[in-house]
Amino acid sequence: MLPLLLLTLGSALPDHGIYPELLARVSIDAPRVVEPAHGWLRVDRAHKLVTLYDGDDPIGLFALGAADVPAGLKVVDGAPPRADDRDGDGIVDRLDVLLGAKKLLYNGARYIERYVSIAYPGGDVPRTEGVCSDTVIRALRNAGLDLQREVHEDIARSPAAYPMVEKVDASINHRRVRTLLPWFVRHWQTLPRGTKYRPGDVVFFDTFPQREGPDHLGVVSDSAGASGLPLVINNWTDGATDAEMDLLSWVPVTHHFRWASGGRSHAR
């Protein structure tokens, strides 16, 4: 097997996603120890990448070159299947979402809640601003998934699944937490309470217990907080910017989602 180098600099990544000028500032905290019974490595020489898995879960990226990779693990050669790599850059979708979210930490968009008329598809509010939903929209776009288009088309196909939508508007429907929830339920894997959080998961929160249902969401990071639980990349409230926060230890989670293979295998 070729020697390997822990990938710490984003500039070494073949990422095709958002804000490419921020890529060099991004790193992934891959575990150094993985249980050999469940851990394995995918060696993708075409993209000069190695993906570390724990069972079916991608949990780290490495670059071909030197040493310092978990030893004693099974090795599988070849690029990830296209069903797990929507934009074809060699980075599996769930880690691509994480990379996109981590870029947002350096972009520094301020939480500003307002209606903005945007282009379709692929539209976005100015990158200097956004709300919690924009954090997730941008992170998923880094992996080649346009939530604006996905939600708009899903509303057109299945309006009964979106009873909260009074007016179909591709500029705003996908930016509303309550509208995003049925899309994730229909198209991503819904995980039961107590499931271990993985990098790139999307979580919905209830920050106002007096109002039923979720009102906030974010992307699970690869870094842990003081609580020992993973941090969540999110844009919290007025005046805040995208940040990693230790939310899982004190904010009630209403829904926990994971991108399934192909991103649509759980559609209903």
Summarize the structure.
This protein is α+β, with helices and mostly antiparallel strands. The protein has helices spanning 93-107, 132-141, 147-157, 177-187, and strands spanning 4-6, 39-44, 49-54, 57-64, 74-77, 110-111, 129-130, 189-190, 202-205, 216-224, 230-234, 243-245, 253-258.
Order of helices and strands: EEEEEHEEHHHEEEEEE
Number of domains: 2
What CATH architecture of the largest domain would you give? Alpha-Beta Complex
Predict the CATH topology of the largest domain: endopeptidase fold (from Nostoc punctiforme)
Structural class: alpha+beta
Q: Would you kindly provide a written description of the structure presented here, covering whatever features stand out?
A:
A hairpin with a 5-residue loop joins strand 10 and strand 11. The N terminus and C terminus are likely disordered. The strands form three sheets. This protein has a six-stranded antiparallel beta sheet. Strands 1-4-3-2-5 form a five-stranded mixed beta sheet, with no helix packed on it. A two-stranded parallel sheet has the order 6-7. The protein has 268 residues and is α+β, with helices and mostly antiparallel strands. The termini are far apart. It has two domains: 81 residues, no CATH class; 163 residues, endopeptidase fold (from Nostoc punctiforme) (Alpha-Beta Complex). It is built from four helices and 13 strands. The longest helix has 15 residues.
